[in-house]
Amino acid sequence: MTEKISPQLIFEKSGAQKQAWLLPPSSVPVQSFTELTALNLLRKEVLNFPEVTESDVVRHYTNLSTRNHGVDSGFYPLGSCTMKYNPKFNEDLVKIPSFSEIHPLAPPEQSQGSLRIFKDLEQYLAEITGMDHMTLQPAAGAHGELTALLIIQAYFRDKGETNRTKILVPTSAHGTNPASAAMAGFEIITVTCNSNGLVDLEHLQNLVNQDVAALMLTNPNTLGSFEREITTIEKLVHSCGALLYYDGANLNAIMGLVRPGDMGFDLVHLNLHKTFATPHGSGGPGAGPVGVKSFLNQFLPVPVLTETEQLLSWNYDRPKSIGKISGFYGNFAVLLKALSYIKALGGPGLTQASRDAILNANYLRIRLQEYYEIAAPDTCMHEFVLKAKLPNHIRAIDVAKRLLDFGIHPPTIYFPLIVPEAMMIEPTETENRFTLDSFVARMIQIYTEAAESPEILSTAPQNTPVARVDETEAARSPRLRWSPVQD
Predict the structure, then answer these.
(1) Residue 177: how many CB atoms within 10 A of its CB?
(2) Cβ burial 150-174 (10 Å sphere, 16+ → b, else e)
(3) For residue 80, is it within any domain?
(4) Is 258 a residue whose pLDDT tops 80?
(5) pLDDT at 31 > cutoff 70
(6) Which one of 72, 172, 176, 321 has the fewest beta carbons within 10 angstroms of its own beta carbon?
(7) CA 106 – CA 327 distance, rounded (Å)
(8) Does 480 map to a domain?
(9) Which secondary structure element, helix H or strand E, spans residue 423, and what is its range?
């Protein structure tokens, strides 16, 4: 196997007297440096900044950018995260100076256009989800979860039902659900799932009582299965006075087809950076709006956007509000892109996007089920989970690493935790059949290699700039700071 050459850092390309640009002489009086020295505010040594030419800089960062995998460079079937192609028109839109240069503290009288964008988006999202009111303030998905949980907490506190301290979370839920509930101060109670990955109704019935505040439910769930007994679940939860909360991370499977509000959900959060066309990855940018039914409106975070006499303004006079949960009113660029995406597709387009996402996922599921065991073999929604248990002790991590050799970003692995050697695959609606067939061909090749040439998989990737790393060592003893080699 060819030894891989470690890529150089920009510091390692440094050389004395190299310059990327020339600066004019400093106009700062010399005596000011003397004063700083007297105050002991100057460094004793020159900072170790890299000295490189302009071409060094351009080549270095251009080469680094080609080593990042994104949806613009290859197939990205990352289950649960909806990494779909995002129209470049949206990116051009947010660069318009009227949008990009407005100050967040500009008074409402000077911001009516931007506030109208907020208001229109709130109305569209309320219609799509079947909610009555929205807030765009949460900065991302988990932040939306926390906001919804704080609203639930405030609702029961207002009713004097402080005994409701428990949140029910199915084993098929997103991993952030129990974390957000714990952060809000709730006790997490796990609801088991049946062999099809759906909520175990008998177990749920045994858990609902006067101590439960809400059930956090993702529908379809992380196995890509739709909760067919959602009306029964809704009745069980509401029968004890608890609320039903919708995790909207998988809305890409149902938008335009069915609404959480019509299923009986009381409040919902959305991931605009997944469902409504904003480039998503590496922790941002995000937006996690929360929608509520009317009886929860008074608890929404402040400020609330109100419209009177054709003037949009902020309303802080909300005594039962959970307060402010973000510095400003959401991530404006992400919100603008979402509105653009919704307007471009319209209602029929959003529905077709969901249908195409479901079609693509089931196409892959059928093509791969001959070679890999499917965790929930029935018809799926937008994603499905397979078990990568292959001959010669080949595991999901080996399959994932091998896919990198083919320019394919690996699916989510080892999640959900209830499936051994899980690989969660979500092709999204923006991939064509040629791409899907190419992915199937590579997965079949990997299946064959596991039986005939397992060493290829156990040492993969072979064709990437960096070989397989020791992930345990990287997590336990990370090298986060570069130091020059001492002579």
Answers:
(1) 23
(2) bbbbbbbeeeeeeebebbbbbbbbb
(3) no
(4) yes
(5) no
(6) 72
(7) 14
(8) no
(9) strand 422-425
Q: Distance between CA atoms of 45 and 43, rounded to whole angstroms?
A: 6
Q: What's the start-to-end Cα distance of the chain, in Å?
A: 31
Q: What is the mean pLDDT of residues 205-211?
A: 97
52 shares its domain with 115: no
Q: How many angstroms separate the CA atoms of 270 and 329, rounded?
A: 16
Q: Are 115 and 16 in a shared domain?
A: no
Q: Report, as an integer, the average pLDDT of 80-92.
A: 88
Q: pTM score > 0.85 for this model?
A: yes
Q: Are residues 35 and 144 in the same domain?
A: no
pLDDT digits (tens, 9 = 90+) for 115-138: 999 999 999 999 999 999 999 999
3-state DSSP: the chain helix, strand, coil percent, rounded to 5? 40, 15, 45
Lookup: tokens for 476: 């336990």
Whole-number percent of the chain with pLDDT over 90: 71
The residue type of 50 is P
Residues 192, 262: one domain?
Answer: yes
Identity of residue 27: S
Domain tally for the chain? 3
Dist. CA 182–CA 146, nearest whole Å: 9
Domain membership flag for residue 81: no
Q: How many CB atoms lie within 10 A of CB 259?
A: 19
CA atoms within 13 A on the CB side of 448: 6
Residue whose pair of structure tokens reads 């428990």 in the numeric block: 166
Which domain, by its residues, includes 26?
10-66
Q: Which two tokens stand for residue 41?
A: 């505010």
Kindly state the average pLDDT of the residues 459-465: 91
Q: Which tokens go with 4?
A: 């891989």
| Domain assignment of residue 83, yes or no | no
Per-residue pLDDT reduced to its tens digit, 339-376: 999 999 999 999 999 999 999 999 999 999 999 999 99
